[in-house]
Amino acid sequence: MSASVDAIAAPEPRAAVRTTATIRVGLVGCGAFARFSMARYRALPGVTIQAVADIDPAAAQRAAAELEAGVLAPEALLVAPDIDLVYIATPPATHFHQARLAIEAGKHVLVEKPLATTVADAETLAVLAEREGRCCVANLVERYNPLADAVRDVIRSNLLGDLVHGLFVNDAADEGLGPGHWFWNRSVSGGIFVEHGVHFFDLVASWLGHGEVVAAARSVRPPRPGCGNGGPTAVEEQVMCTCRYAPSGAASRTVDPACGDGNGHAGVLFHFEHGFHQPSRMDRQEMRLVFERGELRLFDWVPTHGELRALLDDAAVAATADLLPAASVRRVDRYEGDARHVRGRFRGFDASGLVEITFTVGKDKLGIYGDVVRDLAADQIAWIRDPAHRRRLTEAESVASVAMACAADRMALAAG
Ligand SMILES: NC(=O)c1ccc[n+]([C@@H]2O[C@H](COP(=O)([O-])OP(=O)(O)OC[C@H]3O[C@@H](n4cnc5c(N)ncnc54)[C@H](O)[C@@H]3O)[C@@H](O)[C@H]2O)c1
């Protein structure tokens, strides 16, 4: 049930928090992802896993044995006096209610994505967390990837010129998502934009700031009778949306209003596609950022490596390579004399050649996934210990990702 944001009183000064003591973590929802995350949290200095809870007693017992923690009933864990931070890793529709109970009991909360399945609920949690001086962010790990920092630096450097548009295509596996899985039930998951798309709305927002959804659509898999529980029901399997972000780059920020017909919109269009329909061995993702002088691509849904191909002068090649981890430069073509002069978007620039730069964080997907899960928790715990610590992800950004997802979902449903 949603609570009105107005019903929550204005924020008061943040309550004092324990600065040096061990942070005692309680887990609610001992499923597949929680067990992956908890193994990383457990390795953080000054953190102990106090108790776990699940509506499935066998799941709770298994996690408790793995984590050497106690077992409590979910409602008891959310308010237990000896827990400082609750990690909520249940299916999305339960996040709001559980997070609210925990914050009201004085806990900090790390909520699995999405923060909530409606904007009103997400906003309510953020307001409540601020009033109580507590943490309540969603586990939006993408912005903690070193490649996310590198891409942000490339965009801000303007070395490739302005960003013109972006594209993220996520052809994800559904092999582990049988017909009875909660993922397909929109009243539990919130739909693909909300359950999954929030990660990428947040990642792109970390590069380009606030965006707006301008178009969206979805497709459903027709009923497949005879394939088991849930199979006879049609399920949403593919969603797409296009969003607009503020222009990137100095040149676009100084657009002469006398240019153009005045009827268009300046800004960067970014297209997101998420589908869950592939065998696990064909699971694949690609992010493409197209700039005036070339393009940058990232691979995997937690990106592990990327490629950049651009027309650059020698100084820009060196400066770009400096921004990318473990960069390896290959000169594809070299230009001399007049061939050095290149034009695009009514502008000219010089390029000494066409280069390809590959880069990598030097770990496989699971290795980086573990790192970003750990780093997000460490960042939030640093803030819990010291409110002056500047977090990379806040409640406001967690809410913003839900707002984008819900706007896209509404538009996709309206499109039929
Ligand atoms: N941040 C990420 O990269 C990432 C990756 C995968 C999943 N997730 C998120 O993690 C959450 C869980 O996903 P999962 O794949 O682990 O699901 P899962 O189905 O494997 O696990 C969910 C667990 O919660 C338990 N549960 C359900 N309702 C409960 C309740 N009311 N109280 C207590 N326990 C309850 C279930 O019994 C189950 O053990 C989802 O929100 C999902 O979107 C995040």
Structure description:
There is one protein chain. With 416 residues, the protein is an alpha/beta fold. It has two domains: 128 residues, Rossmann fold, CATH 3.40.50; 225 residues, 2-Layer Sandwich (Dihydrodipicolinate Reductase, domain 2), CATH 3.30.360. It has twelve helices and 17 strands. The protein has a nine-stranded mixed β-sheet with strand order 8-9-10-7-11-12-13-17-14. Strand 11 and strand 12 form a beta hairpin. Helix 5 runs antiparallel to helix 12 and helix 8 crosses helix 12. The longest helix has 21 residues. It starts with 22 loop residues before the first strand and ends with a helix. Bound molecules: nicotinamide-adenine-dinucleotide. Nicotinamide-adenine-dinucleotide binds next to helix 1.
What order do the helices and strands come in, and which of them pair?
Blueprint (H helix, E strand, L loop, with lengths): L22 E6 L3 H11 L4 E7 L3 H11 L2 E2 L2 H6 L5 E4 L6 H10 L3 E4 L7 H14 L3 E3 L7 H12 L5 E11 L12 H4 L2 H17 L2 E11 L13 E11 L4 H4 L14 E11 L5 E8 L2 E6 L5 E8 L1 H10 L4 E7 L6 E4 L2 E4 L2 E8 L4 H21 L9 H20 L2
Parallel strand pairs: 1-2, 1-4, 2-3, 4-5, 5-6, 7-10
Antiparallel strand pairs: 7-11, 8-9, 9-10, 11-12, 12-13, 13-17, 14-17, 15-16
The protein binds nicotinamide-adenine-dinucleotide.
Nicotinamide-adenine-dinucleotide binds next to helix 1.
